[in-house]
Request: fold
Amino acid sequence: MDTIEYKQALQTTFDKVSSRYDQNSFFGISAKRLAELLPAAEGLHVLDISTGTGSVAIEIATRHQDAQIEAIDLSTQMLDIASKKAQQLELTNIRFIQSDVDELSYPAGKFDVVTCGYAMFFFPDMEASYRAICKTVKPGGQLICSSFTDAAFNPYAELFLHRLKTEYDVSPPGELKDRLKTAKNWQTLAESSDYADLVIIEEPIRYPVSVDEWWELLNSAAYKSLLDQLKPEQLEAFKREHTAEVTAISDNGTFELNSDTLFCQVTL
Reply:
């Protein structure tokens, strides 16, 4: 799959899951934590990259009512939901824009802060995208991002991916599933561009879910792109097999969902 095809597939997946995306509580929880990391300054100019349904942008807009926020994403369906959420909250300091992170046209040093929640690891040429993003930040400004730890969603995600690969020959593209899961990964990425300071915080985000809720999670986030590669009869069989093995290691059909998160705060 070339870069154009990959991005089109990514856009299609997030369009499909947009209406169910916010049912995953960890997105809202982590958005609050990320917003707390912004500097307590007035009149911030912020760019939120891969905003999705706007969780991070809306948290920032609520906390910093004098900030001006531009929020971009590939998915128009995600942006539609984000815009409606902002309107319901009567937030007027966010502008939602359909845009590709690899086609940023902002001048150098335009933003005080750039944020990116759970998305950097999706970028095909991650290092090049990272360097381009850094150029849009003012000297002394910050880039604040989040990613899942290597323990997040496991052992359930490992069971999911293993069965998909061994039984159905379906797997994530390249090394995507292994990106930015450790502090060392983030440090290596930060070192691909100039920076003045780097802080990495690991935050536990955990709560109980049922096996049925786990299956809904798989169908309301990026995992959906893998399930969509199965034929209807394969999907039915896979659901039966996977939920059975998750149930077998659950506590009466319930388990603690680990969505532990790394927050990377780079001062440029």
About this structure: The chain has a mean pLDDT of 96. The chain is about 40% helix and 20% strand.
